[in-house]
Amino acid sequence: MLRKLFIIALCLVATIFTTQAQTQTPPDNEIWYTTTDDKIAEFEFGKEPAPENGEDFEIVSHTYENGRGVIRVNKPIKVFGNGAFYGCSSLTSITIPDSVTSIGSYAFEGCCSLTSITIPDSVTEIGHEAFDGCSSLTSITIPDSVTKIGNYAFRGCDALKDVNANITDLAKYCTNNPIYNIPGNKHLYIDNKEFTELIIPDRVTQIGEGAFAYCSSLTSITIPDSATSIGEYAFYDCSSLKSITIPDSVTSIGEGAFKDCSSLTSVTIGNSVTEIDRFAFYCCSSLTSITIPDSVTTIGWGAFENCSSLTSITIPDSVTEIGARAFNDCSSLTSITIPDSVTTIGEWAFAVCSSLKSITIPNSVTTIGCGAFYNCSSLTSITIPNSVTEIGEYAFYNCSSLKSITIPDSVTKIVYEAFYGCTGELIVNCNIPDGAFDGSKFTKVTIGDSVTSIGYGAFYNCSSLTSITIPDSVTTIGEYAFYDCSSLKSITIPDGVTSIGNGAFYGCSSLTSITIPDSVTSIGEWTFRGCSSLTSITIPDGVTEIERHAFAVCSSLISMTIPDSVTTIGWYAFYDCSNLAKIVCLATEPPQIECDWPGVYLGISEATKIYVPKESVMAYRQDKYWSRYAEQIVPIK
User: Fold this and answer.
1) What SS3 state is found at 535?
2) Which three-class secondary structure string do you get for 472-495?
3) Are the beta carbons of 201 and 178 closer than 8 angstroms?
4) Helix or strand (DSSP H, E) at 619
5) 364 pLDDT exceeds 80?
6) Using CA atoms, how far apart are residues 283 and 333, in angstroms rounded to an integer?
C-alpha cells in the first residue's frame, strides 16, 4: 500500500544548492534537498499512486542534518509522483537519484525558493506544470533522455535565464511569452518578458505550433540546419523580430508562422520550402521585399496579406497556385511578374494593391478569381491571355486607372461587376455574359466580329460610355443591356438582331439617335424609357409588337411612325412623352392596346395628334381602346 508523509517547514526566500548537494549523487533510495531555514521541508511525496515504485514502497526515515535533508525509502525510486513537492516554498535545492525516470505533473509547482535542480539522465518525462511558479529558478539542465515535457512545465519561472536542453522539437501553442519543446503534447514554457535572442540547438528538427508566439521582445533567432518544419503560428506576434533566415533544411512554413511580426524587414527562405502556408507572413507591415525560392509550388491563402511595405516580390516558375488573398492589401507593391507555371489566381489575390501599376497574366492561367485585382486603383494596363475562360466577380473592380483592356474570345464567363468602375477603352472579343460590365466607366467599347450575344445587363449603369460599336455578328441584345448608359449618344443596331430585350436602353438620357434594323420584330418593355434626348426614331416594317413603356419619358420625342406590321402596343408605351406632337400609325386595322389597368392606355397627352389611314379613321375612333383618343385621331394627309 502506498504511504504518504507530510513534513512541515517554514516557506521563506530563495537560496542555492549546497556544494555537497551539487557534487554528490544520492543512492537510488534517497532524495537530498536543502531549505531556506535548514529545517525539514513540508511536502507530500507520492501524492498520486505510483505503481512503478511498487505496492510495498514506503519511507524509512526523514532527517535534516549537516545542512541537508535526506529522505530514505525502502527501494529504488522510479517516479516522482504528481504534486510530490507541491507548494514547498522553503525548498531551495533538490538532488534526484539516477533511478528516477519520471517527474510527475505539479511535482515542484509553487516551490518559489527553488533556485536550481539537477535532473538525472534516467528521466524521460517531465509532467505538465512540473515547475510552475518556481520564480527563483535561474537555470536548469534537461538531459538528452527527456522525450516529453508537459504543457506549462516552466510557466512563471520569471528568473529562468539559462535552459540547456538538447531537444528535438519546439512545439505547441500557448499564450504569453512561450518557448516550447517536444512531440505530442510536450513543450517547454519560459515566461520571460525580456527574452530578446535565441539560438535553437542543432538537435531541433521541428519548431512547432506557437513555439515563440507573443515573444514581443525577441529581436533575433537562429534556426539550425537540423530543423525541417516551422509550425503554425510559431513566431506569431513577435513584434520586435527584425530578420530571419530559414535554412535549406526546412521544407514547410506553417499557417500564420510569422503573422503580425510587424518589425520584420528581411526574410530569407531556404531552397527546400515547398509551401508557404496561409497567413504565413500576414501583416508583416515592415517587410519590403522577399524572394521566394524555386522549390515553392504554393503560396497559400493570405500568405502576404497586409504586408503594406512590400514593394516587390519575385514568384518563381515552380509556383502553380497563388492562393486567395495571398497579396491582399499590399498597398506599396508596384509590380509583379506571375510565371507561366501558375494556373490559378485566387480570390482577392491582389485586392487593394493600390500602387500596382502593371501586371502580366501568363498563358497558363484559366481563371481570374473573384476580386483578384479589386481596387487596384493605379493599375494602368493588363493583358488577359487566351487561356483565360473565366473572370470572377469584382475581379477588376474599381481599377480606375486602367486605360484599356482586351478580353479574348476564350472567355466564356464574366461574373457580375467584374469591371465595375474601370475607365478607358474596352475591346471585347467574347460573347458578353449577363452583367459582365455592370457599373464600368469605360468611355469607348469595341465589340469584336466573333461576338453573337450581349447578355442581360451587360453594360448596366455604364454612365461614362459615349460610344459603342456593335458588329453584324450580334444577334441578341439582352434585357437591360445598356441600362442607364447616360452618356451614350448614338448607337447602330446591326441587321442580325431580331429582338431588343426589355429595358435594353432604359435611361440612356443622352441618346439622340438610334438605328433599328429591319430584322427586329419586337421592341421590349421599357426598352427606350427615359431616353430623354431622343427626338425621332424609325420603327422598321418587321416589328409586330411594341411593349409597355417602350418609349415612356422620351421627353424630346417629337414624332413617331408606327408601321402597319405592328399588331400590339403595350400600355403606357408613350407615357410622359411631353413633346410628342404626332404619331403616325400606318396599320389599317387598329393595333391592340394591352392594358393591365382599366383606363390606362398609350399614356399620350391630349395635344398629340394620331394620324391613321383615311379609310380607317372610324375604325380607330370606335375601337375599344383607341376610342378614348377619338378627337385626336385624324386621317393621314
Assistant:
1) coil
2) CCCCEECCCCCCCCCCCCEEECCC
3) no
4) helix 617-622
5) yes
6) 14
Longest dimension (CA), the chain: 138
Question: What's the chain's average pLDDT?
Answer: 84
pLDDT for the residue 621? 96
Going by C-alpha positions, the residue among 485, 454, 386, 379 that lies closest to residue 422 is: 379
Q: Does residue 546 register a pLDDT over 90?
A: yes
Q: Concatenate the DSSP letters of all residues of 362-416 into one string.
A: -TT--EE-TTTTTT-TT--EEE--TT--EE-TTTTTT-TT--EEEE-TT--EE-T
Backbone angles phi, psi at 616, to 5 degrees: -110, 0
Is domain 489-637 annotated with CATH 3.80.10.10? yes
- 427: nearest Cα among 444, 446, 410: 446
- Cell match 525502502: residue? 74
What would the mean pLDDT of 513-518 be, rounded to a whole number?
87
Of the candidates 520, 527, 509, the residue with the CA atom closest to the CA atom of residue 465: 509
Of the CA atoms within 13 Å of residue 526, those in its CB half-sphere come to 13
Calpha distance 110→133 (Å, rounded): 5
Q: What percent of the chain lies above the pLDDT cut of 70?
A: 87
pLDDT mean over 561-573: 93
* Residue 207 pLDDT > 90: no
Pairing of strands 91-95, 30-35: antiparallel
The pLDDT of residue 195 is 52
Residue 502: pLDDT band with limits 50, 70, 90: very high
Residue 76: CB atoms within 10 A of its CB come to: 16
Q: Distance between alpha carbon 556 and the CA centroid of its chain, in Å?
A: 50
The strand pairing partners of 386, in sequence order, are: none
Q: Of 407, 399, 507, which is closest to residue 463 (Cα–Cα)?
A: 507
Q: Could you give the CA distance from residue 158 to residue 193 in angstroms, rounded to a whole number?
A: 8
Check: CATH 1.10.260.30 for 170-266?
A: no
Contact assessment for residue 313 and residue 326, using Cβ atoms and an 8 Å cutoff: no
Which pLDDT belongs to residue 179? 38
pLDDT at 594: 83
> Domain 1-165 in CATH: superfamily?
Ribonuclease Inhibitor (3.80.10.10)
Cα separation, 514 vs 536, in Å, equals 9
Please say whether the beta carbons of 258 and 244 come within 8 A: yes
pLDDT in tens, 312-326: 888 899 999 899 999
Neighbours of 358 (CB within 10 A): 14
Cβ–Cβ < 8 Å for 234, 208 = yes
Note the pTM of the prediction, 2 decimals: 0.69
Range(s) of the chain covered by CATH 3.80.10.10: 1-165, 170-266, 489-637
